[in-house]
C-alpha cells in the first residue's frame, strides 16, 4: 500500500511522515509538495503537487492507495484547490482519501468552516472511500502568543470564558497516521479535540506558574484585540480573522468533550502544561 501526504513540508505533514516512517517502510510513502527540492530531508520520495495546478495532480497520484489531504493554507482558495485534488484522485483511482477538516465543521460558527463544509460535500459526492478528521485547534495556535504575553505582562484575547479543547499538533499527526494505516476508518468522521478544555485565563495562569511571573489574561472587545495584533505587525485581515476566531471560541466553537482523539491515538492528548513547557523551552 502506498500512502501519499499533501502539504508534506508543512508542520503537520512533517510530523505525519516522521510517524509513518516509524511504522511502515519509507518506500511506501510519497510526499506531495509544491517544491520537491525542499523535501529532501523527509527521507521519502517527493513529487510536485500544487493544489492550484490541476494538470499536475492526477499523474502525481498514480499508484497511490491512500491519500492524506491536508487542508490548504490558502484560506479563500481552499474549496477550489481541494476539489482539484479530489477530481485528480478520482482520475487516478486513489483507494481512499483522509481529509483534515475542522472541528464540528457541519455546524461550526468559525468562518473557516465554510470551505471545509464545501470540501466535505465534494468528498461525499466523489464516490471515493473517505475518512474525515475534523481537527480542533492546535494548542500551538495559542502558545505561540507566550513571548508577547511575557513581553507585555499579560495575555490578551477576545475568547472570554470560552473553553478551548485543543491538542498538540503531534496528537493530530498521530490521529492521521492511525486513520491512514487502517481501512477500518473508511466512511468515518471523527471530531478530534483535546481531552481537557481550558480558557485563556487558564493559559495565563499556567504561564505564570511555569515562569514565576504574574501574567494575567485581559479580555478585549474583538476590534481592540484586532487593533493590538495589527499594531504588533500582523496584516489587518489576519488580525481581524484571529479576533473573530476568539469570539467564536467564546461561544463554544472550539469545545468538544467526546475524547475521540485520545481514543483514536490510544493515549491521552498532550496536556496544556506540557505544551506551555515546550513553548517556553
UniProtKB/TrEMBL annotation:
SUPFAM superfamilies noted in UniProt: NAD(P)-binding Rossmann-fold domains
Gene3D superfamilies the record matches: NAD(P)-binding Rossmann-like Domain (3.40.50.720), UDP-galactose 4-epimerase, domain 1 (3.90.25.10)
Residue ranges annotated for the NAD(P)-binding domain, each copy included: 7-181
PANTHER family noted in UniProt: NMRA-LIKE DOMAIN-CONTAINING PROTEIN, QUINONE OXIDOREDUCTASE 2
Protein name according to UniProt: SDR family oxidoreductase
Native source species: Altericroceibacterium spongiae
Amino acid at each position: 500500500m502506498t500512502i501519499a501526504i499533501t502539504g508534506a513540508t508543512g508542520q503537520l505533514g512533517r510530523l505525519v511522515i516522521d510517524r509513518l516512517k516509524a511504522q511502515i517502510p519509507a518506500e511506501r510513502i510519497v510526499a506531495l509538495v509544491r517544491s520537491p527540492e525542499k523535501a529532501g530531508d523527509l527521507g521519502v520520495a517527493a513529487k510536485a503537487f500544487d493544489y492550484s495546478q490541476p494538470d499536475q495532480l492526477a499523474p502525481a497520484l498514480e499508484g497511490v492507495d491512500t491519500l492524506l489531504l491536508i487542508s490548504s493554507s490558502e484560506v479563500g482558495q481552499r474549496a477550489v484547490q481541494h476539489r482539484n485534488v479530489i477530481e485528480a484522485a478520482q482520475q487516478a483511482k486513489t483507494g481512499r482519501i483522509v481529509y483534515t477538516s475542522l472541528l464540528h465543521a457541519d455546524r461550526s460558527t468559525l468562518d473557516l468552516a465554510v470551505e471545509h463544509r464545501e470540501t466535505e460535500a465534494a468528498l461525499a459526492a466523489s464516490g471515493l472511500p473517505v475518512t474525515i478528521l475534523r481537527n480542533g485547534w492546535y494548542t500551538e495556535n495559542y502558545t505561540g502568543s507566550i513571548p508577547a504575553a511575557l513581553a507585555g505582562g499579560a495575555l490578551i484575547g477576545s475568547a472570554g470564558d470560552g473553553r478551548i479543547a485543543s491538542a498538540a499538533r503531534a496528537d493530530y499527526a498521530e490521529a492521521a497516521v492511525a486513520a491512514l494505516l487502517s481501512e477500518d476508518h473508511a466512511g468515518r468522521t471523527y471530531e478530534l479535540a483535546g481531552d481537557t478544555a481550558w480558557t485563556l485565563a487558564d493559559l495565563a495562569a499556567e504561564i505564570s506558574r511555569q515562569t514565576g511571573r504574574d501574567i494575567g489574561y485581559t479580555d478585549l472587545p474583538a476590534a481592540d484585540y484586532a487593533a493590538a495584533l495589527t499594531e504588533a505587525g500582523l496584516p489587518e485581515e489576519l488580525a481581524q480573522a484571529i479576533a473573530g476566531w476568539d469570539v467564536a471560541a467564546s461561544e463554544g466553537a472550539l469545545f468538544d468533550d467526546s475524547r475521540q482523539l485520545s481514543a483514536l491515538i490510544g493515549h491521552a492528548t498532550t496536556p496544556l502544561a506540557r505544551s506551555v513547557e515546550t513553548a517556553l523551552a
